[in-house]
Specification:
Layout (H helix, E strand, L loop, with lengths): L36 E2 L5 E8 L10 E8 L4 E2 L1
Antiparallel strand pairs: 1-4, 2-3
């Protein structure tokens, strides 16, 4: 998946988000890590990035705050 976040000066705002649901739910107990690659066209700081918000209880929600984005890329 590729997500494009508008820059801070965009007239449309600098927020991007989405929800991807999987029904039925998946058993991921055999895994112990989630990795993704983050790259920007310019250096920036993302206020909050997160996973697990299911628009309900969100009992598996995880957030990272003030994440620095660098132009060359960063594996998380």
């Amino acid at each position: 998946m590729r997500f494009e976040v508008p820059d801070a000066n965009s007239p449309q705002g600098s927020y991007a988000g989405g929800v991807f649901l999987s029904k039925p739910g998946r058993n991921l107990s055999g895994y112990n890590a989630l990795t993704f690659y983050l790259k920007g066209s310019q250096a920036a700081t993302i206020g909050v990035i997160g996973l697990g918000n299911d628009l309900a209880e969100s009992n598996t929600k995880v957030n990272l705050s003030n994440l620095t984005v660098i132009v060359t890329g960063r594996k998380l």
